[in-house]
Design brief:
By secondary structure, the protein is α+β, with helices and mostly antiparallel strands. Helices cover 44% and strands 8% of the residues. The chain contains 13 helices and 8 strands. The protein has a 4-stranded antiparallel sheet.
Length: 331
C-alpha cells in the first residue's frame, strides 16, 4: 500500500524543519549568552569573578580553569598595566619577597626584566640594587666598558669591581657621615667601614700621640657617587681613576689617606705610612690599587688607597700575601 504525500503536506514539513532550525539556533544563542565561562571555576567571590571576566580573554579563562590556577595567585595583580596571566606565579613569588611593593610595581619589575633574567635572579639582584638601578643597567648597559658584568653582591664586604665588573649607578644603602674628629670635610662610608676607620684612626693617634684626626693623615676621599665619578673620569681618565661604576669608592668601603706635603709614592717612607702598611689589616683594611695587579684593576697604584674587606678576609690576605684582586679573580 503506498502513501501519497500531498504538496500541502510537503510545504508543512519544510516549514516545520525551518521553524525547528530557527528555534534551535535561538536556544543555542540564549544558552551561549547565559553561559558562565567560570561555571567550572571553584570560586565564589563575585567581585573577583567580575574582574576575571573583565580582564581575561576566553582563552585565558580556559587556561586558569584547565590548570586550576587559584585566584589568590593573581587577583591582586589583574588590573595592573602589563599584567599577563601566564606570569602570575612570578608576580606572586616576587611579591612574597617585596611585600612593601604595590601590584603595579611588581608587574612592572617582572615584565621589564623577564627577557634578561629569571624571577629568582631578579630577587637576588634586588637584595643589592634598587629596581631603578637594575633597570638602568639592563636598558643602557655600560657605555664606558661594553660587555661589563653587573656584580650581584654590591652591598657585601667582598664586592669586587674592576674594568669588567661594575655596580652601575648603585648607591650603598647604609652610608653614614664620617666622624668630625677624623675629618672636617663632609664624607661618607658604609657603617661597617666607618666603625673600622674610627678604630684604626684611634690606634694611629695613640701611636703618634695625637688626640684628633687620623695620626697625621688627611682623608682626601671616601664614598664617591656615580655622578661624581663621571666628572672625575672625564677629567683624569683611566688608569688614573676608574670607569664610573667600577671604582671601590662607589662601594662606600674605600678611603684615600695622605700625609700633607708628601707625594703618594713616598707615603711608606713616613712614620704614619709605615704604620698603615704594617697594621691596616688588623682593622679590616687592605691596599687594593697596587702596581702588581694593575692589569686586573686597570688603575694606577695608590699607596694611600685602602679598602675595607672585613677582619677575617684582611687577616687571610695578610697571612697569605695575596692581593684582594688576585683573591677575587679566583673566588
Amino acid at each position: 500500500m503506498s502513501v501519497t504525500i500531498t504538496s500541502e503536506q510537503e510545504r508543512f514539513r519544510k516549514y516545520f524543519v525551518i521553524i525547528l532550525a530557527l528555534f534551535s539556533a535561538i536556544m543555542i544563542g540564549v544558552l551561549n549568552f547565559r553561559y558562565d565561562s567560570l561555571s567550572r571555576y571553584p570560586y565564589r567571590d563575585q567581585q573577583s569573578r567580575k574582574k576575571i571576566k573583565e580582564q581575561l580573554t576566553k582563552e585565558e579563562i580556559e587556561y586558569i580553569i584547565e590548570y586550576s590556577i587559584a585566584p589568590s595567585l593573581f587577583i591582586n595583580f589583574i588590573e595592573a598595566d602589563g599584567f599577563n596571566i601566564y606570569h602570575a606565579q612570578d608576580y606572586k613569588r616576587l611579591s612574597e619577597v617585596l611585600w612593601d611593593k604595590s601590584p603595579q610595581e611588581i608587574v612592572t619589575m617582572v615584565e621589564s626584566t623577564r627577557n634578561d633574567m629569571s624571577t629568582d635572579e631578579l630577587i637576588h639582584y634586588l637584595q643589592s640594587y634598587s629596581f631603578e638601578e637594575l633597570d638602568t643597567f639592563l636598558k643602557e648597559g655600560d657605555a664606558n666598558s661594553p660587555g661589563t658584568t653587573l656584580i650581584d653582591n654590591a652591598n657585601h664586604l667582598n664586592a669586587y669591581v674592576n674594568v669588567k665588573r661594575t655596580v652601575g649607578t648603585h648607591v650603598p644603602n647604609n652610608l653614614v657621615k664620617v666622624s668630625n674628629n677624623i675629618t672636617e670635610e663632609e664624607m661618607y662610608l658604609t657603617e661597617d667601614a666607618h666603625i673600622a676607620l674610627n678604630s684604626m684612626c684611634n690606634a694611629i693617634n695613640a701611636q703618634m700621640r695625637q688626640t684628633q684626626g687620623c695620626g697625621g693623615f688627611a682623608i682626601t676621599k671616601a664614598y664617591v657617587s656615580y655622578e661624581d665619578q663621571e666628572k672625575e673620569f672625564a677629567l683624569l681618565g683611566s688608569p688614573k681613576t676608574s670607569y664610573p661604576g667600577h671604582d671601590e669608592h662607589q662601594l662606600g668601603l674605600a678611603v684615600d689617606l695622605k700625609v700633607p706635603g708628601i707625594p703618594d709614592a713616598e707615603l711608606f717612607k713616613t712614620e704614619p705610612g709605615t704604620w698603615l702598611k704594617e697594621n691596616a689589616w688588623r682593622f679590616g683594611f687592605v691596599q687594593t690599587y697596587t702596581e702588581d695587579v694593575k692589569a686586573l684593576t686597570n688603575h694606577d697604584a695608590e699607596n694611600g688607597h685602602y679598602r675595607f674587606v672585613g677582619m677575617v678576609l684582611a687577616r687571610m690576605l695578610h697571612e697569605s700575601g695575596l692581593r684582594f684582586a688576585n683573591y677575587s679573580e679566583n673566588y
